[in-house]
Design brief:
The strands form four sheets. A five-stranded antiparallel sheet has the order 1-2-3-7-6, sandwiched between helices. It has a three-stranded antiparallel sheet with strand order 8-10-11, with helices on one face. The chain has ten helices and twelve strands. A hairpin with a 3-residue loop joins strand 1 and strand 2. The protein is α+β, with helices and mostly antiparallel strands. The chain folds into two domains: about 90 residues, Phosphorylase Kinase, domain 1 (2-Layer Sandwich), CATH 3.30.200.20; about 240 residues, Alpha-Beta Complex (Aminoglycoside 3'-phosphotransferase, Chain: A, domain 2), CATH 3.90.1200.10. Helix 4 packs antiparallel against helix 5 and helix 5 packs antiparallel against helix 8.
Length: about 375
């Protein structure tokens, strides 16, 4: 029952400083001295302190301080043939600020040649596991603001990375990921364990969820193939959650990381928020998030109807995402971001995470756990 189709890819916007980005930057990335030099050119004043601040899967972030006490975030992006996160994020933050959206960093300047951008440095602490009710409400309100902007000013032209506007889009996307994983032929122990997990657990689980989703959609009168109307789509960060948020000293939550920004299905945004491995929410807070958005989004009723199917399908996708490190270029991205752990430790850890998620969804996909 699994279907085949190519991956859906996001598009890019425009950047304020011109240059010709290379097709990929997976190795030979610039050292800190060069990054500091380029940052000074972008900021326009000498930097007196420059240090590593954070690392993601596709970028490195440095904190730059100038003599006047100002702090800036310099982000060095990993650019691949599939997408250019610098272009998307810089343009998205400019677009959102122009439309009065707050609680996000300000885009200051960028250098496409060296894959760098300068943003406000957000002074704050990770939200971590201590998600208070007010924090959850801040996340809901941010999504609602994006929903209103989606209706009032739909000038943004590109889709989110791997946007899915029909349930079959998700199935096709998952198929592409699983085909890539099943095509790996390395014989080391982690890869043998990967193949056993795919054949014994994940592929049969995916088949069962596709069958269940198809039957459930038919009962709800939903089409698996028909995309949702343009008016039902939302401008989505596409990697939204408290793993990409900081709490300022005054308690305000600031959201960051818009590399995947664009139009998407609100049901996908909600599903990813619930499923992201970097999130730590109890069931009550997950239910509150779902209830508020399904009640307050413009098209919340239709979102609520397809959310159980979307959630179960995207859970399989997240299992596949957790296994990305088995693919050489994805492991290279980890190295770019600064992960120097032993390869076997990385692969074994990711496989364990995928096993746990698959086990959880196998027990719950027939009864959406966060509905009324």
């Amino acid at each position: 029952m699994r279907r085949t189709a190519p991956l859906h890819k996001g598009s890019t916007g425009l950047c304020s400083i011109h240059g010709n980005p290379s097709k990929t930057i997976l190795q030979g990335h610039a050292g800190m001295d060069n990054c500091k030099k380029w940052a000074e050119a972008l900021i326009g004043k000498p930097i007196v302190a420059f240090d590593r601040a954070a690392a993601g899967r596709n970028s490195r972030v440095f904190r730059a301080r100038t003599a006047d006490g100002a702090a800036y975030a310099l982000k060095q992006y990993l650019v691949t043939p599939e997408r250019n996160g610098l272009e998307t994020e810089f343009s998205a933050l400019q677009f959102l600020h122009t439309n009065g959206i707050g609680k996000i960093p300000r885009a200051i300047a960028c250098d496409r040649t060296h894959h760098l951008a300068v943003y406000d440095f957000i002074e704050g602490a990770p939200v971590g596991d201590a998600v208070a009710p007010n924090d959850l409400d801040a996340a809901v309100e941010f999504v609602l603001v994006l929903d209103r902007l989606s209706q009032s000013n739909p000038a943004w032209k590109t889709n989110a990375a791997e946007a899915c506007f029909a349930l079959n889009d998700a199935i096709e996307n998952i198929n592409a990921r699983l085909r890539r994983l099943t095509s790996l032929r390395e014989d080391s122990p982690p890869f043998c364990e990967l193949r056993a997990f795919l054949e014994t657990d994940l592929l049969p689980l995916f088949d069962g969820i596709v069958q269940w989703a198809t039957e459930s959609a038919a009962r709800e009168g939903l089409s698996m193939n028909s995309p949702i109307e343009t008016s039902e789509r939302i401008l989505s960060p596409s990697d939204f959650g408290f793993h990409n948020a900081l709490r300022r000293t005054d308690g305000e939550i600031v959201f960051f990381d818009f590399e995947f920004f664009g139009w998407d299905d609100p049901a996908k945004l909600i599903s990813d928020f619930l499923l992201h491995p970097g999130m730590s929410l109890d069931d009550d807070r997950r239910k509150r998030f779902v209830k508020r958005l399904c009640s307050e989004l413009r098209n919340g009723h239709s979102v609520a109807k397809r959310l159980p199917m979307a959630y179960s399908l995207f859970a399989v996708k997240w299992c596949a995402i957790l296994l990305n490190e088995f693919i050489p270029e994805h492991l290279a991205r980890r190295r770019f971001a600064g992960d120097s752990r032993d390869e076997k430790a990385i692969l074994s850890g990711q496989l364990d995470k995928a096993r746990r998620m698959a086990g959880q969804i196998a027990n719950t996909y027939r009864d959406f756990p966060y509905g009324d």
